Amino acid sequence: MKIVFDFGAVLFRWHPPSFLARVWAHRAADEVEGAALAKDLFQDYRGDWGAFDQGLIDASTTADRIHARTGWPREEIVAVMDAVPSELKLIEGTAALIQELKAQGHALHFLSNMPEPYADYLEQTFPLKDWFVSGVFSGRVKQSKPSREIFDLALEQFGARPEEVFFLDDHPANIAAAKALGWQAHLFTTPELAREDLTRRGLLPA
Question: Per its UniProt record, what PANTHER family does this chain match (predicted)?
Fold first, then answer.
């Protein structure tokens, strides 16, 4: 079985409401206000940020487009974009799960919607090549989840058939897309619940 990890909110912290409340405290006094801002900034990873995710526009163009669309000062938008790496802290429970799965002999891969600058940061900061046999970043293949194209590209990259893959992702739409293509999948909420599911499926020892 090839086990495939999403990155944001699965292996690395990604919680826009608290992130924006932290880095844009003058605009978001708490996570409720941060969540409202996140809808405007990230547009549910469609629009401007979706194009950035797919590598169709660069960071500078993304900032230009968000500024034109929202009227927020461009320098504030750039400051938020520059702060994203500080949000991407390792989720230790998932890192431990990776080590357990590797010890059981499973081949691990990743499939992540990630703009190229942040993909570069993760590769330079964390031992991805030690953890994963291979992986796909959306920003480098110009496709993003939940489109079928990126799942097909991933299977080719992983050298796998759909039924040979177990996928962990935190977005219901991505899980639904994977299952529709014949992948086994788990909607990730916590490392502990993911471990329970992997154990039930016989991928980790009880």
Answer: ALPHA-D-GLUCOSE 1-PHOSPHATE PHOSPHATASE (PTHR43611), FLAVIN MONONUCLEOTIDE HYDROLASE 1, CHLOROPLATIC (PTHR43611:SF3)
d(CA 8, CA 28): 22
Stated pTM of the model: 0.97
Identify which of 1, 160, 206, 186 has the alpha carbon closest to the alpha carbon of residue 94.
186
- For residue 166, the 8-state DSSP code is E
CATH architecture of 2-13+89-200: 3-Layer(aba) Sandwich (3.40)
Task: Quick: pLDDT tens for 123-137.
Answer: 999 999 999 999 999
Token pair, residue 118, equals 């942040």
Q: Which band of pLDDT confidence, cut at 50, 70 and 90, is reported for residue 167?
A: very high
Q: Give the whole-number percent of the chain exceeding pLDDT 70.
A: 100
Element (H, E) at 154: helix 148-158
- Is residue 98 a contact partner of residue 7, using CB atoms and an 8 Å limit? no
3-state SS assignment for residue 24: coil
DSSP letter string, 85-137: HHH--B-HHHHHHHHHHHHTT-EEEEEE---HHHHHHHHHHS-HHHH-SEEEE
